[in-house]
Amino acid sequence: MKKIYGITGIFMVVFILTALMSSSFLTPYNMERLILRTSLFGIISIGVGFVIITSGIDLSIGSVICLIGCGLPWLLTKLSLSMPIAILVVLLATLMIGLLHGLLITKLKLQPFVVTLCGLLMYRGLTRGFTGDQTQGFGQVFKELRWLGEGRVALPGIPLETFGLPVPFFILVLVAILASIFLNRTIYGRYLLALGRNEQAARYSGIHTDKMIVLAYLICAGLAGLGGVLFILDVNSAQPVDFGNFYELYAIAAAVLGGCSLRGGQGTILGVVIGAALMQVLRNMITLVDWIPTHIEYAVIGAVILVGVVADEVVKRVASSRQIAASRQ
Amino acid sequence: MNPAPTEPLNSVDEAGLSPPLLLEGRGITKSFPGVKALKGVDLKLSPGEVLAVIGENGAGKSTLMKILAGVQSHDEGELRIDGQPVRFSGVEDALGNGIALIHQELNLADNLDVAANIFLGREPRRFGLMNTSLMHAQASDWLQKVGLRVPPETIVGHLTIGHQQLVEIAKALSVNARVLIMDEPTSSLSQHETEQLFAVIRDLSAKGVAIVYISHRLGEVKALAHRVTVLRDGENAGSIEKQDIHHDQMVRLMVGRDVSQYYALKERQTGEVIMKVEGLRTPHAPEHALHFELRSGEIVGVAGLVGAGRTEMLQTLFGVAPAVGGSMWVAGRSFTPQSAAQAIECGLALVPEDRKQQGLILEMAIKENMSLASLRRDQRRGFLDFGSEQDIADRMIADMRIKTPSDMQQAQYLSGGNQQKVVLGKWLAMKPRILLLDEPTRGIDVGAKQDIYRLMEKLAEQGVAILFVSSEMEEIIGMSDRALIMHEGRLAGGLPRAELSEQSVMQLATGGDRP
Ligand SMILES: Nc1ncnc2c1ncn2[C@@H]1O[C@H](COP(=O)(O)OP(=O)(O)OP(=O)(O)O)[C@@H](O)[C@H]1O
Ligand SMILES: [Mg+2]
């Protein structure tokens, strides 16, 4: 718990600063968009959080989003598959991807960075291939499906025209609660945390470390796939060439900001979600605040991540030196 | 055979007042979160002296040594070298002042070769580039000094722990230190290697190098030390001069009470056979098939020289180094062990040799470490049972007298001996039917050692079969109902208690025939 104080503090500071600097930040419409984006990125960040906890990494998330996000409308409109079949295909594809990554990493002992880097290149290339690099979207049909991405739920006392909570927000809450229970309350979550620190000792304790690592990559690919569906529903028109570009980096950054150590074995789901929210507020700030030129976005985000990680380290050191001072008495 | 260092010890310096002290610590204190590890310790060291520092697990020995070697800084107190106050900024600084430390836990880069490890950070250069051939040549010299016969090109990760320990020693020797600190250097060495090390130590001492020697093996201390300093709970508990060094005296100062009756040597009633090993082949020595049986309630020692394949045998029995042939029969089930999970299911437990790599998740809490193997058994449909986790931790910390401020302390902050107790506790919590122990008392103080022996006996009485590997002859002879002796990957023979003696064990261990 101590670990998320730092990130929560930074989030609040950035949030308040943005509110002060831009009058359009706190408008209902902007808040709605912000919550929506946070939900989408939160979901994929939770996925990569699991992989990072095993001391792995997944660079292919953005391309999986592209594959699924462009693939689903393509299956529905180009191939005219029925909805259940199309969903089944998409689900199988993501599971296959996760399984492939996991098996290559555990059975062949390939490095996660390399395996998923190849994935990053392959899935996007593949998508551009089968779609003929054409823009993909649902058009105005598939109402029920589109509700998942575009639907809004009114809060009591506020008319829906003014503000509604986006449906993906509820999906994020559900995913986050499940993930959090899994990580902190089940033996499998404990196994992941243990093997992320010391795989050998975990194996000596009777843990099927390979299976657990595969599971982490499955979760990651699965949530990336879900993210892909939600992202395409949000924009409803995607170019295979750049849809989902760099999303893996946003997801990894959110996880790291949220307290996941790339050395493995460390991380909280709530931290990851707040990390994702911080990234989105930052991007929002850069667009809304007039005097910040939009094209320095990456510089700002990079700098804030660095500050976040440094602040986290400082907080840790201060806390432990306090404890030392206390035990000297 | 060596000139006794009494000369420099008793000589009087120019002013004719006090003997020249090489190193002195006065009133050293050090605190960690939740622990006051040192509470004003004094230490004196003269040139050529071999000073043994002893004390129970967690007494503060390693902490004091880390301070002397600049690894950690002290809170209060004063360090003096040649009478001049110093304060080290780091290890480099201490090395520059001629102080080198061999850590209790290995600190080698697994992926580099032996020579690179010995000269890490001090590589000989030529034209700005690393002079590899010179480095290998010099490394060979140092390896020869410590009696390690491996080529300097060997990757350290491929060596046994004992050999890695020798590399550490060679590395410390190679800096030509004036003060050489050894924190439990022999805990993973064979008898022969230990003797070799003693010869090196006596040689250095004769040349005026001061040695600080930490060990829980009091026999070694008696053989080697000119003086003994005892620590208890972070304070000086006393000092013993050469002529007064006796086992009982040391124990009394360490523990504050008498510890007697080391080995009970009770006749035990053994039950029926609960494990049969039928032609099992380890990946380490696949050309030899292993055959033996274990009975419930039996304590069987496994003896052999370092490298005889004892650890590898336990690893294969436990499934972490899957067998390449043969089978094992445990309580009605026949199988070829393929994973630790499978072995655990059959009621086996292994306390591994290397606690840092295989026994503990160093960054996890004591509590979480202790429950790790039991999680599957105690689960509630996949959910953690926090209650049983707490029970295990409370019970084991009390039973094993683990010294820690809380059960949430990370394992990495415990003293070496207390870490070992955590690993033991973790496996005892599993209530195994067959307990495999690999050097179970490594790094454990006399009091705790006795606790562990009593525990083994108690478990045996309850019907647990215990197979333990040990490099301490005394332990093998004192604890085993029967011993298995290994030589170069094969079982060279078995000896019942009546026939156990140092000679009979060594004869088989060195490849000789049955006595
Ligand atoms: N980095 C650390 N953080 C917190 N506590 C520590 C740290 N290092 C040591 N301690 C604590 O300080 C005390 C002294 O530890 P130390 O390692 O010096 O014991 P030791 O005498 O070497 O024991 P052993 O014989 O088991 O090796 C112990 O209670 C230990 O838990
Ligand atoms: Mg120690």
Descriptors:
heterodimer; A: 329 residues; mainly alpha; ABC transporter involved in vitamin B12 uptake, BtuC; two-stranded antiparallel sheet; 13 helices; B: 515 residues; alpha/beta; Rossmann fold; 2 domains; 6-stranded mixed sheet; binds adenosine-5'-triphosphate; binds magnesium ion
Short structural description:
The complex is a heterodimer of chains A (329) and B (515). Chain A is an all-alpha fold.
Question: What do these coordinates show?
Answer:
The complex is a heterodimer of chains A (329) and B (515). With 329 residues, chain A is mainly α. Chain A has a single domain, classed as ABC transporter involved in vitamin B12 uptake, BtuC, CATH 1.10.3470. Chain A is built from 13 helices and two strands. In chain A, helix 2 packs across helix 12 and helix 8 crosses helix 10. The longest helix of chain A is centred in the C-terminal third of the chain and has 32 residues. Chain A is globular and about 65 Å long. With 515 residues, chain B is an alpha/beta fold. Chain B contains 19 helices and 22 strands. In chain B, the strands form five sheets. A six-stranded mixed beta sheet of chain B has the order 6-9-10-3-11-12, with helices on both faces. Chains A and B meet through helix 8, helix 9 and helix 13 of A and helix 11 and helix 12 of B. Bound molecules: adenosine-5'-triphosphate (ATP) and magnesium ion. The site of magnesium ion has 6 residues of chain B, from helix 2. Adenosine-5'-triphosphate (ATP) binds next to strand 2, helix 2 and helix 16 of chain B.
